[in-house]
Structure prediction request, 599 residues.
Amino acid sequence: MSTIQEEELKELRDEKRNSTKYDNRKSAASCGIDCIGRHLRQRINILNWIGTYDREDGISDVIAGVTLGLTIIPQSIAYAALAGLPSQYGLYAAYMGTLVYVIFGTVKEVSIGPTSLMALLAVQYTMDKPIQYMIILAFLAGLVELLMGVFKLGFLVSFIPIPVTSAFTSATALIIVGTQLKHLFGIPSKARGFFQTLYSLATQVMETNPGDLILGGFAIVFLLALRQITKLPIKDDTQRGKALKKFLWYLSLSRNALIVLITSTIAFKWHSTGAEVPFKLSGHVKPGIPGFELPIYNVQSGNETITYFEVVKDLGSSLILVPLVAVLANVSIAKAFTAGKIVDASQEMIALGLCNILGSCFSAMPTCGAFTRSAVSHSSGVRTPLAGIYSAVMTLLALSLLTPYFYFIPKTTLAAVLICSVVFMIDFSIVKVLMKASKTDILAWGGCFCVSLFAGVEVGLLFGIFISIVGLLKVWVRPTIQQDSIESKGVQYVKLSPETGIFFPAVDFLRTKVIEVANERKVPIVVDCTSVIGLDHTSTKGLKELANELIKVKQKLILLNLRPSLRKTLQEGDSEIFVFWEDEGDMGVNNSNVVQNMS
Prediction:
């Protein structure tokens, strides 16, 4: 081959090699872009549906968003009061939570904002402290929620069982009702805790303000009546009947906003006459929207400057409990409204974390999803999370235009709104079910409920979780062992069947049981290992020691249905001390040596 031909072939090979490298780089770049796109769509959920958003979606979301706004505004004002904050702080949390969730949230019905649960839990740690404590708590809780989502720690919520959740919710609702009675009766009280508050009210009942009590009673009757108005027997087989039913539904839905509007108007008109208003008012509310400020700062309390790290130290266990309860509430609501679809729990945690982090930068209190508002969105025909934009706009308009009139909102009206919102969360019907189902569950429920009322909801929640985990550990430490005396092919033996595995907490219990039976009955002892899914070092050593003890009394430990991989673990170094049966049919084949050893 000539030199020219060799050079041409070399050029062709180089060209092909370069072309292959280019194609590989192009393919890798394309794959990288696709991976980034998938990751972005997974984390920024709005990208998954905004491209197909149409006019029909927009109309449905406007209706749902406005309806939600009528609910969230009075609730936010009431929940801010419950948290010991001025009204505007609840509204800050309401608009920021809904705005952020529009972009990152995955469930269209979920409404992020202030809740009675978050308000009561947070105020346990921030009572009598500067407002900045609540804002910093929202920021740090958001960080924890975000990290839980990033590291997929949602499984931690599984350690809060339904009985504990039910007891915690019922106790929280009862405490809220108790704390609001002082506003309902117009009695000045600084008592803390459920029973302290009731005692304080009982000793000061003669100081009841008739104006607060009458107006509060009227507000409760009004709210309960409108709640039930949708149950009126109206035939919807005509156009007029359908329209009336729809009107009553909207009337019921707007009951919180209506009672706030009616009682505030009464207070405003009364104040305009120059006469003294006979019930307590909310007072001045700062107008406008706060500027952006990252909540990492020292706190000024009178003449004392509290450093940021001292604030974090003071917040203590709230940095775990508040985000944990918020995640539990949010994921539960998401699952309730997804009709059996898979909920991306990690993304919900990330969305909730961002809602709290960004909300705290605009002076928001801690937030999470609310069942009542989510139910409103669902029944209003919400199509996408974009409905939150419209409720956020309504909240911003309220902050910009209506704050001067918030002064005239009676405190007893907000108390009535809170009482009527949470009283239906109290659920004692579960007790009857738990008493028939499980002693551990009823103990966990009772413990959580009682401790929450006596020592605070945060202590009660931890106590309920502790009882549940102890009950769970008890099953592994002291497993139920079924004992059967069996005669097969002319040979008698005792079969012991542990209902759970025999990891290290249970091996001593099993060992005691086997020795006890071996001393009572001089027959072969078979341990059914069907439920044994693994063996740790302690349980392996314990079984070997048990086998050696049986050999001393001329018996062998017979293990039935043990997995091959676990059998191999036991046979390492001591292959002769055990007898393994694949099933009970092996008895006739393998039992002769065992019987001989016993004789």
About this structure: The beta strands are 112-113, 299-301, 304-306, 368-369, 481-488, 491-498, 525-528, 557-560, 578-581. The radius of gyration is 33 Å. The CA atoms of residues 524 and 595 lie 7 Å apart. The mean pLDDT is 85.
